[in-house]
Specification:
mainly beta; 6 strands
């Protein structure tokens, strides 16, 4: 795994490295790129400070670096940093945290 890029999300945003899509079906058939599902899981590599509450305090982020998360297939913004694909998502776009 390559080194994480220098990237600081703003407010309640998180930077997620999506897990690779399955390239072989459970029955052993190799899937072409067009048939592969978009990944909806990833590992958090950077977390913002949290949104600012009306009273000026920061809301706690429900997620931390290294957490594995599930998000909607079409959520967030896809970006490429140092040749690697990432997603920028708001904390509210995260559907679940997976505990190993």
């Amino acid at each position: 795994m390559s080194k994480s890029p220098t990237f600081t999300p703003i407010e309640d945003r998180v930077l997620v490295r999506p897990v690779a899509a399955e390239t072989v079906s459970p029955s052993g058939i190799v899937l072409p790129d067009s048939a592969q599902e978009k990944p909806n899981q990833g590992v958090v590599v950077a977390v913002g400070a949290g949104r600012t509450n009306p009273d000026g305090t920061r809301a706690d982020m429900p997620i931390a670096d290294g957490d594995t998360v599930v998000y909607g297939k079409y959520s967030g913004q896809e970006i490429t940093l140092n040749g690697e694909d990432f997603k920028i998502l708001r904390a509210a776009d995260l559907l679940a945290k997976i505990d190993a």
